[in-house]
Amino acid sequence: MITGAAGGLGRALAEALRDQGDHLVLTDRTEELSGLSSGSAAELIDADLCIDEDLQRLCTRLESGEPAIDLLINNAGIGVPGSVSTLDEVLLTKHIDINLTAPMRLAQAAARGMLTRGKGQIFNIVSLAGLFPLKDSAAYTASKFGLRGFTAALALELEPHGIKVGGLYPSAIDTPMLREEMSHPDGSPLNFAGNADPLSAKETAKRVMQALGSGDLETWLPKSEGRMASLVMAFPKSLQRVFRYMEKQGNKKKQTYLASLHP
């Protein structure tokens, strides 16, 4: 099962798993799924992760559905920038609902089914924002910090039972979500800090497939950015100074990226 399967990374993951012959259970909101062909060996489920009834249907499918689901990829997510003081409270909560609560609920249901079979894998698409905070994206950062902690704790619980748990921590991925975020005045320039350029969805999906095979708990993408984020957070007093430097560095590449969208 892949959540957020209709576009960007979700679609690329669906194609990669389909190519290796897996049966796919793809879920997204109705209006997004309409552009996704069911094809062969694919099951489409219309679901909005903010609606409890829809989320419960997915949980039921994970726990007791046939055929059994041996891999859950929590990919769906939102990231709408904005100051905490001005962000609509509904949108503030929506970040937690989609980016954290839904993956937790789905992982719980998946784990119940997998424990009965003694095998399976749960993989969360997190973000480097799960390691390093983003200014003007506090709600997004909170959801991703929480998902990182949940993923690590879940791994401690399930791996002794033969169930693998891991997550991907990417920097910028060139998807509609990134383009929408960057069109916002508060879109974080940290997406472009460092030496790496935004990865394509296809290349990121390839890295996910490698991570699924390795079974590693955390895959930082790029690895150098993950190391830097972890180092800075070990010395929180340096956070403001480092952030200002990275923001200045990232702003130049952000403007180049925006110009490429509107040549």
CATH architecture: 3-Layer(aba) Sandwich
Report the portion of residues in β strands.
5-15%
Q: What ranges have pLDDT less than 50 throughout 5 or more consecutive residues?
A: none
Q: Whole-Å distance between the termini? A: 37 Å
Rg over CA atoms, rounded to whole Å, is: 18 Å
Biggest β-sheet: count, sense, barrel?
A: 4 strands, parallel
Write structural notes for this entry.
By secondary structure, the chain is of the alpha/beta class. It has one domain: NAD(P)-binding Rossmann-like Domain (Rossmann fold, 3-Layer(aba) Sandwich), CATH 3.40.50.720. Helix content is 51%, strand content 14%. The protein is built from 9 helices and 9 strands. The protein has helices spanning 8-19, 30-33, 52-64, 89-117, 138-158, 176-182, 201-214, 223-233, 239-261; strands at 2-3, 24-28, 42-46, 71-74, 120-125, 163-170, 173-174, 199-200, 218-221. The strands form 3 sheets. The chain has a 4-stranded parallel beta sheet, with helices on both faces. α5 links the parallel β5 (120-125) and β6 (163-170). The longest helix is centred in the middle third of the chain and has 29 residues, at 89-117. The model has no long low-confidence stretch (mean pLDDT 89).
